[in-house]
Amino acid sequence: MDLRCWTPQAPQSLVNPMEMSLCLLLLLLAASTIQHQTLSDQDLTLQMLVWTYFKPKVCYRPVLSVVSVHKFHGRKPFTAFPGSPKGTSSRPEGIQYQLIEDVEDLGKYCPGGYHPLRVGDALNHGRYRLIDKLGYGGYSTTWLAQDLQCPRYVAVKVITADASGSTEEASTIRSLQESSDRLGKEIVPPLLDEFWVSGPNGKHRCVVTPPARMSLFDAKESSRFGLFQPKVAQSIIAQLIRGVAFLHSQDTVHGDIHLGNILVQLPKSIDQLSTPELYQRFGEPESEAVVRIDNKTLPSGVPAQVFFAAWFGVRSGELALGEEKIILSDFGESFNPHKSPRYSSKTLPLLQPPETRFSDEPLSFSSDIWTLACTIWEIFGQRPLFETFFPTQDRVTMEQVQVLGILPSEWWEKWDRRSEWFDEDGELNMTPGVPRRHDGVRRTWEMRFSHGIQEARAEAGLEIVTDEERRAFEAMLRSMLKFQPKERATAQQVIQSEWMNGWGLPALEQSWNSSNSALGKIRGIKEQDLN
User: Fold this and answer.
1) Is 157 annotated to bind ligand?
2) Which domains, from first to last, does the chain contain?
């Protein structure tokens, strides 16, 4: 098992010793039970256990413009998993492929699933020539393409056939772009084109937007310390708050705000590079052959080779002020709460607001505010605000109560497993003889701020947060993290907070000035622009 790219990320003081002991016990049990397995099965078993407990340090293919971090591609047996919440893809039963790490689910190359593509293919009557792969999701692959009509590079998102008919992402983006409001609109990606392509797995919607440099998640994960420069973090947060305020002013809840959906834009100068120059600077496309375990012929609709995502980004600590212009991606979960009530969240479990579990009321703008606050914390520091291994509903609720205090009484009574962590006053349950699932240490807001932000910044050689900014930052986030949705600050109120006016907006203005932007002074925005 190759662990060269695996490093534990959680600060030791934030790791629950009971859970660590459980993980070590599982590893010992695994070692005693897999001794008769094949090497690849042992590798997979151990890697699944390690993945459960340690976040991997993301490794990328060599990039000539930054220090190279080599990528190790493993080959392990892989079985296509059934079912997709957004479609009814008809997967060939029993087919197994050699596992190729860091690529899309090969089992989704089937009727209703992904469209098979390769570098060099041309789409939309030859207009877009695929240059490299940018990434993938559960319902799409995204490619860097050369627009042969307008000399520029674009991102082409090719959606799975089953999801193509139901997605309203393109229409949502188009509607937002048509708005006459200005404040925060720049966070919405321009929709450059939309077309359809037919293939062996069905008919696929394709959406064309400007290409992104990287996601904030990738920037942090590729970095040793997982931190942005303080001014850069402040500017990104200010942009994000302004962008969410714009969405809400247009009656749009994003529904899936997290670091992976916040993208740093590529500089326009990339359009000046020819394809050979692009490859010289960022590396040639890399691929690996798709092989069945039984060595039989691949089914129709499965590509002969699959490509790894390119890396055009920089590590978080290397992103300079003036280079951090962001866009918010993936509007596939967005909705208008006045027209399309929604009662469940599909965002990451640790970012889901408590009402998704305890309330019968539909989600609204306030659910975005909760998720926005969690994301802001992670941009500002090193670690997430809420963090637990095996993030079940109970563990997520436990984290929320540890940090923010006892739930509202009607929700507290609904939580039937609360006594495993807390007494009836919301304190850690230390009653003798009562089974408990904690180690006796409450990891408070203050402790998490100290370890995940202050100590992390000091270790990275960055300026720590002043007491004045810390108080303003905490006040802003706590106003966004009220348990009751109706008590949370609105996006407009967050814009008007002390932290935004004292730190966020000044950093954004400094960024605009340093990048010679013509956007002008943000202090001159009139009050009606906030409505």
Assistant:
1) yes
2) 12-53 (no CATH), 75-328 (3.30.200.20), 349-493 (1.10.510.10)
